[in-house]
Write a structure and sequence with these properties.
Layout: H1 2-23, H2 44-54, E1 57-68, E2 71-82, E3 87-95, H3 102-109, E4 122-128, E5 131-136, E6 142-145, E7 181-187, E8 193-199, H4 201-205, H5 210-213, E9 229-235, E10 241-247, E11 264-272, E12 287-289, H6 290-293, E13 294-296, E14 305-307, E15 317-321, E16 329-333, H7 344-361, H8 364-367, E17 377-379, E18 395-399
Length: about 400
């Protein structure tokens, strides 16, 4: 009796234990929140940029396509960036449509002295923190600019616009991501996300070189178009940015500017190679300090050798380099132009005549290596600069290559 009672008691205890075990089993742990996709929709593009920065390095390629009746003119920006370090290395290249008017081609590439009339189609670009380095065309050196350089004081700084705000390399759609608003999200292949968002005209204008930007003024201060630019942004399963596109046509429409011929405008960006190789900046041996080299052509003395492209989109600026360093041109005279500024056409004729007279008596060592014998170029001061440094003087030069 006693034994049986003990057995029953033991059995009851075992049943209770089984019942207790069944009720207190371990529940699966809740899934961890995704650092990007579980945030409010309006915050996700900015968080995707943060996730991209956490990868440190990326490769990028962006095209800005300007459509006219002559065809498409495309500005391609590409290279690599180290996002946390603020470094980038790459290039910007223009490919202009055949038959594009000279005035529009100059608007895109920037004006230049000499026979080409426009700046080089390709500019090497490197960003090192706050400094921007440029390699114009086929130059065998890079010009290092600092934020303190004000060669074109009073105008937009074309070189500093090459440095971005959200990322090191300027002029890409990545700079528009932090300001994106009105965000909607949808799932994409591979577990990523696609976002549609909008940004403001002033933000979108930062994508363009200053000479182009000044012709894209629609949407500035227009209450009827508070957020005219639509973005599409792609992120991978980890929340890192992989692409972005923008229809920039809402910025067009000002019939009084030099871009009236442009009928469509679109940007397309791809981002890849997250966390792979870092950008390689130009070595110190091929760098020249812009503050020492870049000068107004009217401040350079006869005999000086110069390159005509500086990356600044200002054709009054040149780079003075040693004559043994394969320069583009040489200044052989600085003749005085008498009187007040007579207007551009007359000033041009006066400078040309003055340089013709000086060419005959110029040292042969300065003119003998001219690319084309008997050919020379003349430059006259603008009306605003006429006589600023005393007598107005022309700059006379021969092209060496």
């Amino acid at each position: 009796m006693i034994t049986r009672t003990r057995v029953l008691a033991a059995a009851g205890a075992a049943s209770a234990l089984l019942l207790l075990s069944g009720c207190s089993g371990t529940e699966p742990a809740p899934a961890a929140a995704h650092p990007v996709f579980d945030a409010p929709a309006d915050e996700q593009p900015g968080l995707a940029l943060t996730a991209t920065q956490s990868a440190r390095t990326v490769a990028f390629r962006q095209t800005l396509t300007f459509t006219t009746r002559h065809g498409a003119t495309v500005l391609t920006s590409e290279g690599r960036m180290d996002l946390p370090a603020g470094r980038a290395a790459g290039a910007q290249t223009w490919k202009t449509a055949g038959g594009l008017p000279a005035s529009l081609r100059e608007r895109f590439l920037g004006a230049s002295l000499g026979p080409d009339e426009t700046a080089p189609a390709t500019t090497g670009v490197a960003v090192d923190g706050q400094d921007v380095l440029v390699r114009p065309g086929e130059a065998d050196y890079w010009l290092r600019y600092t934020p303190a350089d004000t060669f074109d004081e009073g105008n937009d700084n074309a070189v500093q616009s090459l440095r971005g705000t959200a990322v090191p390399f300027g002029g890409t759609l990545l700079d528009l991501v932090p300001g994106a608003g009105r965000v909607t999200s949808s799932e994409a292949a591979g577990g990523g996300r696609t976002y549609r968002a909008t940004t403001t005209a002033p933000e979108a204008l930062e994508l363009f070189p200053p000479g182009v930007r000044s012709g894209l003024t629609r949407g500035m201060g227009d209450d009827s178009l508070p957020l005219p630019v639509t973005l599409e942004i792609g992120a991978d399963a980890e929340g890192r940015l992989t692409r972005a596109t923008a229809d920039l046509a809402p910025l067009l429409g000002n019939e009084n500017d030099g871009l009236a011929a442009v009928t469509a405008l679109r940007a397309e960006l791809t981002v890849s190679g997250h966390g792979t190789s870092a950008p390689e900046l130009p070595p110190a041996a091929v760098q020249r300090t812009a503050a020492d080299v870049v000068k107004d052509i009217h401040a350079v003395e006869p005999g000086a050798c110069v390159d005509l492209a500086t990356g600044m989109r200002d054709n009054s600026l040149i780079a003075e380099i040693p004559c043994g360093a394969r320069p583009e041109a040489r200044i052989f005279a600085r003749p005085v132009l008498a009187g007040d500024h007579p207007g551009a056409k007359t000033a041009n004729r006066s400078a040309r005549a003055a340089c013709g007279g000086e060419y005959i008596g110029a040292p042969k060592a300065w003119t003998a290596t001219s690319e084309k014998k008997g050919s020379y170029w003349s430059v006259w001061p603008s009306e605003g600069a006429w006589g600023e440094r005393g007598a107005a003087r022309a700059a006379c030069l021969v092209m060496l290559r």
